[in-house]
Amino acid sequence: ADTTPTDPTPADPHQNPAVDGSELIRFDKVTKRFGGNTVLDNLCFSVDSGKHVTLIGPSGSGKTTILRLLMTLVKPDEGTIKVNGDYLTHEERGGKLVPAGEKHIREVRKNIGMVFQQFNLFPNMRVLQNIMEAPVQVLGLSKDEAEARARELLDMVGLADRCNDYPSRLSGGQQQRVAIARALAMRPQVLLLDEVTSALDPELVAGVLDVLRDVARTTDITMLCVTHEMNFARDISDQVLMFDGGKVIESGSPDKIFGDPDHERTREFLSAVL
Ligand code: ADP
């Protein structure tokens, strides 16, 4: 028999995102309403760690709401969300599931980074400081560690020479690349991308998508991406989820969804956007 001892030390998830294909995100019967409008309707889906999943579907079908739920910017009316085995929306106390407190939510959220449509950089901080801020304040990294990490990421997004600029001095595409570096500096397990190129001038889109292709190719990070850039989605996705009316109506590989979808609704949507 093989008597080789196994390493008993579990990997620090912030340093080594699990890429064993285990389930990282699970939505279970999630319903979200705004007033009388049911935006997500008893939604169930899961994302395995290390995968790149793209959400497509008509405007208003609830895609952004899914990312906002994961960021705890909004809360579900019904159902549960799990990230890395922990309930995001609930916590276990005394053997019972109760609505999650702020501390629990902050801990689970450390695993999640998000890049928004409108970059949202801190306007009063230079580029380098924008990236260092959260690792120092939230993770407790030393300034030196945070700076080394920030410089490495700026290099990766092609902006090493802009570290002392204020965001307003950069183009939209450059600001968005800084925002990507800022999200990655937290070493999240999941990167949420919410139509990150839709506020950009057309000539700046490719540079941002190239950076994201690099991230997808060279890191283990799990990506959940809402985008109208169908070629990009096709390139980077392991799985595409097609939303309509607050539900996933179809999911599959990009070849399947873009090439030979089962649903008429998917076909209609794609012929309108492609
Ligand atoms: P998508 O990303 O697919 O375009 P969203 O998730 O942004 O869709 O929005 C889904 C629906 O929820 C839309 O009808 C939108 O108007 C509504 N909605 C989203 N956020 C709010 C909010 N904070 N208050 C009221 N309605 C909202």
Automatic annotation (TrEMBL):
Annotated localization: Cell membrane
Pfam family, one: ABC_tran
Keywords assigned: Amino-acid transport, ATP-binding, Cell membrane, Membrane, Nucleotide-binding, Transport
Superkingdom to which the source organism belongs: Bacteria
Repeat as UniProt keyword: no
Keyword Magnesium on entry: no
Organism of derivation: Streptomyces indicus
PANTHER family, per database record: AMINO ACID IMPORT ATP-BINDING PROTEIN, GLUTAMATE_ASPARTATE IMPORT ATP-BINDING PROTEIN GLTL
SUPFAM superfamilies, A to Z: P-loop containing nucleoside triphosphate hydrolases
Coiled coil: none
Residue ranges of every copy of the ABC transporter domain listed in the record: 25-270
Single GO MF annotation: ATP hydrolysis activity
Region of interest (Disordered), ranges: 1-21
GO cellular component: plasma membrane
Transmembrane segments: none
Major site of localization recorded for this protein: membrane
Membrane-protein topology: Peripheral membrane protein
UniProt cross-references to InterPro entries, sorted A to Z: AAA+_ATPase (IPR003593), ABC_ATPase_HisP-typ (IPR030679), ABC_transporter-like_ATP-bd (IPR003439), ABC_transporter-like_CS (IPR017871), Ectoine_EhuA (IPR014343), MetN_ABC_transporter-like (IPR050086), P-loop_NTPase (IPR027417)
Family to which this protein belongs: Belongs to the ABC transporter superfamily.
Name of the protein in question: Polar amino acid transport system ATP-binding protein
